[in-house]
Amino acid sequence: MKISIIGVGLIGGSIALKLKQKNTADFIYGIDSNIDNLADALQLNIINEKADFKTGIESADLIIIAVPVDSAVKILPQVLDLISDHQTVMDVGSTKSGIVKSVENHPKRSRFVAFHPMWGTENHGPKSAVAASFSGKAGVICDREKSAKDALELVESVVLDLDMHIIHMSAEDHDIHTAYISHISHITSYALANTVLEKEKEEETIFQLASSGFSSTVRLAKSHPEMWLPIFKQNKENVLDALNEHISQLRKFKSALEKDNFEFLEELITNANKIRGILDK
Amino acid sequence: MKISIIGVGLIGGSIALKLKQKNTADFIYGIDSNIDNLADALQLNIINEKADFKTGIESADLIIIAVPVDSAVKILPQVLDLISDHQTVMDVGSTKSGIVKSVENHPKRSRFVAFHPMWGTENHGPKSAVAASFSGKAGVICDREKSAKDALELVESVVLDLDMHIIHMSAEDHDIHTAYISHISHITSYALANTVLEKEKEEETIFQLASSGFSSTVRLAKSHPEMWLPIFKQNKENVLDALNEHISQLRKFKSALEKDNFEFLEELITNANKIRGILDK
């Protein structure tokens, strides 16, 4: 199968590496407005050839859109305009309501399958791409009833080739869930980084004491705005819900401390400890 | 040198393993009110022998107190009561003002060196102990002017044997710094866990989507209240300062989102990204 990947960054690059390894892809075209990324992807054998937008799309059986979600909603209709009924299009965006809405009335809507692999890192670009990235992780397919049977089957086989397990849900549910399980984690990390950076202006030695605990909690704060600003923008209402809940949870800790209510503080900690049983099972 | 370790858990156990490996310790006594931990520590060759409080303390050149900080402030004066001027005592607690205050007028104060290794995990108990835990991390020694020269030199040589680099500061400064670089990370993680656990009551599938990003940010939420409740209690004022700053940083994200002020949101993210340069250098 010939595959075109629009956006040969961390996610697009990792998918390309894995699908080559699995022989799912015989040939991969790379389409990217960032010529450095294209050059890196070629050099790293992530793609076989770079292509312009039109040629790349017309030459592929499967087109994978792996650009930030604000670009994805603009690019998807243009891709559908160019394809035939024998071609399939999938995306990998972290928000799903916006992208399915961008093509809801498009005559080729059924050739598109909305997908989100639950994997990412704070890094970006093809140099960070790793073939094994997705193994064992969840691959979410949204609004499957809007996709043609053969398109859905093709994308599902690709997701299984990425060694992911498939979860189906509506785009709307996806965006609620990811606000809580992914988007809010990023805001928490960004805000924690800013908290400590603000304090560091007075206390210069603060980062000498950073241990692995701090590094772990703040890791996502390294994530780039090019990817995350459009996600927060598109999923604004759900992210605000999660953020309000998170601030109200933090206020419980504040209130318990202020009132020397250490029984309540212990209760809050013990409740949070339940995450161990859930994440480790 | 003979060493007694009071509290053969994650930290006490890891120190014991490392100091045996380095031949700093010829013989290690373990003192612990938890008999399971003592049995595990014996079986894992973390300690040579278990001892009762009095015998353990009188038999050792160096006594290391590695219990939660609420117990440490009670135990330290009792230990100093029992020792001679040829013995040295150190602790490993995550708060330092309380412990130095607990012995400020003790006649044996100068035999005590206040220490905090900047390492820990969300796990506990001797089974989680690892000899290499401390390598490359910061070891903070507080209020060194209050310790006798020979006691300080002994503890510094032990810290170097743990492969740590030594940082000196006052107990007061230590508690301000760790509130920001360590204690607040734990509250953030606990509150994030509670945020998602609260939402899960409505949305059962939410944890199926958990990726490594969420796991990383929420990892510290697995940490036990036995250790952390006393830390928050002892460092209440500094933790509240950090928590207030953190909530105010989160409110900036909330306000930017609510007002569709994406320029400000981008600024907040870009500022947080600076953490990459600081942590990776």
From TrEMBL, chains A, B:
UniProt keyword Oxidoreductase present: yes
Domain Prephenate/arogenate dehydrogenase, residue spans: 1-281
Keywords assigned: Oxidoreductase
EC number: 1.3.1.12
Protein name: Prephenate dehydrogenase
InterPro entries for the chain: 6-PGluconate_DH-like_C_sf, NAD(P)-bd_dom_sf, PDH_C, PDH_N, Preph/Arog_dehydrog, Prephen_DH
PROSITE patterns (UniProt xref): PDH_ADH
Pfam families hit by this protein: PDH_C, PDH_N
One term of GO molecular function: prephenate dehydrogenase (NAD+) activity
